Amino acid sequence: MPRVVSGNRRGTILDAPKGEATRPTTDKVKEALFSSIQMKVPDSDFLDIFSGTGQMAIEALSRGATSAVLIDQAKASIDVIRKNIEKTRLSDETTVLKMNFTEALRKLGKEGKTFDIIFMDPPYAMAEKYAKEAARLILEGGLLKKEGLFIVESDSKTLIDENVTNMTLLKSCKYGSTLVTFFLE
Description:
This protein is of the alpha/beta class. Helices cover 32% and strands 26% of the residues. The radius of gyration is 15 Å and the shape is globular.
């Protein structure tokens, strides 16, 4: 079961959808990722694409982010995300969008929304394709604030680089079978 590892909601156990359709980010990866961006999280606006359980956005809010938008199209995931948001009492800070990520990114761009941190954890088999599409829509929609981060989680065999995103590659960090790649706008 996923849990909040730090901040004012630390230790809260979160629910996850039943079955194998959702693969929550492990605590080890989550802790390492947030440790590396800890200075950017307070007072940030966070976007969580392929949110699954909502744990990454909830973690960001627990660590001081101001707001979070969570995107997923699976009904089971949306139900769990809403339950976890209610459990952590973060309803006022969150917006949940039940739609395809491309539709959601277009919608957010049209609304003029911007984010300091955009995190994406797509199905690993589609990580490169979806990261490329998301990066294009993020740039077209002006969704990433100046000096904002676009972070992609994938399996360690999938290289996500500048050729995929047209953003500046900061670093890639491997944690077992998981690769987390950081880009700067």
